[in-house]
């Protein structure tokens, strides 16, 4: 053995166990940051608006505007987890639940922009691009169809609000039977109160808005790094789940899509993983369709975690909007995928559009620009 070999052998090797412990500690810290950020945003809106929180959101009283705000914000940030966590925090600050529900629906559509952009990576090969674009946009059209079905029902009957309210009433009875101790409040309140005291010399409006903006920044930071941390911990396991589950039936596909999304903390990542597999001809759009629907369900966990940070009078309503996100996605899968006629609509539209886009590639860019940006902006101006 050479001297070089001996010197390398003497060098300490990184301990995999210590690395995993560090990553899990990092993950717990980032979850704490989300909880703290939600509390700070809620405090900021309360401080800025006083007793007139609802007036701040009058611009979104139109459900269509709420939908577009959620959709456009998610398309820009490319993370429905981030946007829904912010919506939870806004509800804690006084945003009415009726306005927040269309925003959550819009977030589902906005998040599908990522996998559509990923499909553009196959643009140089006509056949690959056609398959990849079909795989990407089937998620878009499923989410749009859910909005077409459930938004009118919500406007007319308050379907999701009533279902979630029933669940919250049941949870409230359980909560009142406990001792009332809230561990999340215990670990976040001291720091949140310290941040409030730092802006106390400023006017209530200015101080409140600074807190709200800082909270949004913390959420974006935390969820971005949670995604990276979870990928480093789980991406190998996630790929194993993906390869063993896809093509094994719709129930298995939906369940595995949910699990993978919880593991990597990003529905965009989950859906983007399968687009190249379809583009390269390994799988078909129909094979990955249930898997992408599971991603919708799995991404709800972040908003549920965020809702735990809210205390006081808005605690239950913050949990309610997080439950709305989950109930909406579960009902969407049950209704749209459960009814054969509805199930085929996203597939047929995606396959038809992908054939056109493969012939005229500029249509792919036009689709992304128009659906996620131009049409929402036009709708905002039209509604005014």
Automatic annotation (TrEMBL):
Membrane topology of the entry: Multi-pass membrane protein
PANTHER family membership: SODIUM-DEPENDENT PHOSPHATE TRANSPORT PROTEIN 2B, SOLUTE CARRIER FAMILY 34 SODIUM PHOSPHATE , MEMBER 2-RELATED
NCBIfam families named in the record: Na_Pi_symport
Protein name in UniProt: Na/Pi symporter
Transmembrane segments: 20-41, 53-77, 83-105, 141-160, 205-227, 288-310, 316-342, 362-382
InterPro entries associated with the record: Na/Pi_transpt (IPR003841)
Record localization: Cell membrane
Major place of residence: membrane
Keywords: Cell membrane, Membrane, Transmembrane, Transmembrane helix
One Pfam entry name: Na_Pi_cotrans
């Amino acid at each position: 053995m050479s001297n070089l070999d001996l010197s390398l052998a003497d060098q300490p090797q990184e301990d995999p166990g210590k690395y995993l412990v560090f990553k899990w500690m990092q993950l717990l810290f980032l979850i704490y940051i989300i909880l703290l950020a939600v509390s700070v945003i809620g405090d900021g809106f309360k401080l800025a608006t006083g007793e007139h929180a609802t007036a701040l959101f009058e611009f979104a009283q139109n459900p269509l505007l709420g939908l577009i705000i959620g959709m456009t914000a998610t398309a820009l940030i490319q993370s429905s987890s981030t946007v829904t966590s912010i919506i939870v925090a806004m509800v804690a600050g006084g945003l009415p639940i009726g306005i927040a529900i269309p925003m959550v629906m819009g977030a589902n559509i906005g998040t599908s922009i990522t996998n559509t952009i990923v499909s553009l990576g196959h643009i140089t090969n006509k056949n690959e691009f056609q398959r990849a674009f079909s795989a990407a946009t089937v998620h878009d059209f499923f989410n749009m169809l859910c909005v077409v079905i459930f938004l009118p029902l919500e406007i007319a009957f308050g379907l999701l609000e009533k279902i979630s309210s029933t669940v919250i009433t049941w949870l409230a009875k359980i909560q009142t039977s406990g001792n009332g101790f809230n561990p999340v409040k215990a670990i976040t309140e001291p720091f949140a109160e310290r941040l409030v005291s730092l802006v106390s010399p400023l006017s209530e409006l200015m101080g409140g808005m600074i807190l709200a903006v800082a909270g949004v920044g913390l959420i974006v930071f935390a969820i971005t790094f949670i995604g990276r941390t979870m990928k480093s911990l789980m991406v190998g396991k996630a790929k194993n789940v993906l390869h063993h589950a896809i093509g094994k039936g719709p129930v298995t596909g939906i369940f595995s899509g949910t699990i993978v999304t919880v593991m990597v903390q990003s529905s965009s990542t989950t859906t983007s993983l399968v687009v190249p597999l379809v583009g390269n001809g390994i799988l078909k759009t129909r094979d990955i369709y249930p898997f992408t629907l599971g991603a919708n369900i799995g991404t709800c966990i972040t908003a549920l975690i965020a809702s735990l940070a809210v205390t006081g009078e808005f605690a239950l309503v913050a949990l309610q909007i997080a439950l709305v996100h989950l109930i909406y996605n579960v009902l969407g899968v049950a209704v749209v995928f459960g009814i054969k006629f509805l199930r085929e609509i996203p597939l047929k539209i995606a396959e038809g559009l992908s054939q056109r886009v493969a012939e005229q590639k500029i249509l792919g860019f036009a689709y992304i620009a128009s659906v996620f940006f131009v049409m929402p902006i036009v709708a905002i101006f039209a509604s005014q």
